[in-house]
Amino acid sequence: MGILYCDGDRFRKALVASASWLSENSEILNRLNVYPVPDGDTGSNMSLTLISAVDELKDMENVPIGEVLEACARGALMGARGCSGVIISQLIAGFAEVAQSKTRLNPKDIIEGFKLGTKRAYQAVTEPVEGTILTVIRESAEEAIKDIHDDTDMVNLLEKVLERAKVSLQNTPKLLPVLAQAGVVDAGGQGFVFILEGILRLVNGEPLVVNDKPEALAVGTAQKLVSESWETPYCTEFVIVPKDADIPKMREDFSRLGTDLIVIGWGNMVRVHVHSNDPERVLAHAHRYGKPLNVKIDDMRKQHRHITQEPLILTQDETRQDVSIIAVAPGDGIAAVYKSLGVESVVMSDQKNPSVSELIQAIDSAYSDKVLLLPNDSNIIPAAIQASNISHKKVKIIPSKNISQGLSVVLSFRSDLGIDDNIVNIEKALKRAKNGEVARAVRNAQYGDVVIKENDSIGRFNGKIYVSVKDTQTAVLELLKIMVEPDKEVITVFYGADIARSEAENLLEKIESLFLDVEIELHYGGQPHCFYILSVE
User: Nearest CA to 375 among 415, 338, 341, 342?
Assistant: First the structure.
């Protein structure tokens, strides 16, 4: 007798096998990836999505499948990366919806899971395109529906689904011209095939690690054969927990901010994926619904350049950069600003200061062997120095002690010069940047002549407290009066995670009326511990 049902333990083992086999073949997918953009990361994204789902299933032995799939769907949504990763998370969500309150799934439940998962996947994508993973999943599900009974062997069922998936996959170049142009099948669809293969390899006792792999497509070969305008080069992804998760309304709102939009929900969580030319604007918009979590911003132009080893097509305001810049940021909005200024990688310090290992990982993942690291916090500089000593790359630590210094360094950096040739400019940038912060006082205290009361808004400039008042906006204005000199031309204000956009815009009007001849910029910063970060230069 074959396998007639799937319980929580069987599903957990199947998911682990799928994740393992997908990870084993992720580089193959990266090399196939040309749609929706040729950035070569589909394998990595799908693999990390399943790994996030697997991580939610630790210590869930002998648990009903309804609870297992609920946790799996939550983990997949939180960790979903890229279009294909998000689509896979919706396939899992479809099975989770079927499994609610159940201890096991029978063959008809599996079919229903495929149907609901396919429906959710298509609904998640603003403009579904055939010839992608969507087509492969849908046609596989349609095959599964045929001749299904309660006594259907699940192994035979999956074998039929896999067989149909492979046929559908081979047909994708006929449906999507860019695949035919590059001479490849759809990377996401191939990933779905690997997921099914992983389950069957587990059932059949086949290894999930293969030492002798077939020769794969050379790195960058497919990506070189397609063109991309890069009008929306930043892949921006995050999770929010809004008070009112109106998915259709949110999808309509975000549709104005970029392309390849996906907005999906599970429980009280919503994941957003969009390709944009202004990631900071996207995050500022997301802030209206709640604090963005698990933020990821990738410059797809640089990913494409890295995988093809071709020169980056630059805009009129950009210059070639053979040095990787890595910055530490306390908020997702600030991270987005850094990304838009050409910083390759941002290490977050919103919850805690990054460890040496986290900094090493960022350094070793950089595209260039020459790295400029901006700690942007005096407390992070020691860890940065340790990381630079351990890494095999040539790393220059710039002793930036705050966000303003870090931004000034990035803006002054000449990418047509090497690191050493930039030192003079960098030293000048560090000296001319002024940094202010307005935060809440946690206790009564006195700092010099400044009397501080608990819950006051305190204004700190270059490490010293100058202002302590009840009203936050008053604290900002009083601090700026101290910071701004006649020769200072630019004020940049980053508002934090606890500040509403409307409140920040109201403050902007007051600053503009106070400093008539000064250029002023307002940005969403997203920092959790400061109401406002002020940069004057």
Answer: 338
pTM confidence score: 0.73
Residue 67: both structure tokens together = 């609870």
* Burial classification of residue 242, based on how many CB atoms lie within 10 Å of its CB (0-12 exposed, 13-18 middle, 19 or more buried): middle
* Rounded Cα distance, 357 and 385, in Å: 12
Nearest C-alpha neighbor of 19 from the set 204, 206, 203, 199: 199
3-state helix, strand, coil in the chain (%, to 5): 50, 20, 35
Beta bridge partners of 313: none
* Domains in the chain with CATH codes: 6-224 (1.25.40.340), 234-299+318-430 (3.40.50.510), 434-536 (3.30.1180.10)
Q: CB–CB of 374/398 below 8 Å? A: yes
pLDDT in tens, the chain (537 residues): 578 889 999 999 999 999 999 999 988 888 887 766 655 678 888 999 999 999 999 889 899 999 999 999 999 999 898 889 999 999 999 999 999 989 999 989 999 999 999 999 999 888 899 999 999 999 998 987 876 776 788 899 999 999 999 999 999 999 999 888 888 899 999 999 999 999 999 999 998 887 665 555 554 455 555 555 568 888 899 999 887 778 888 999 999 999 889 998 888 899 999 999 889 889 999 988 888 888 888 888 777 666 666 444 444 444 445 789 999 999 999 999 998 888 999 999 988 899 999 999 999 988 888 899 999 999 999 999 999 999 999 999 999 999 999 999 999 998 777 677 788 889 999 998 999 999 999 999 998 899 999 999 999 998 899 999 999 999 999 999 999 987 767 999 999 999 998 999 999 999 999 998 889 999 999 999 899 999 998
In 344-425, the DSSP E strands lie at 345-348, 370-374, 394-397
Coil/strand/helix, residue 241: coil
DSSP 8-class letter at 413: -
Which residue in the block uniquely carries the two structure tokens 């996030």?
Answer: 52
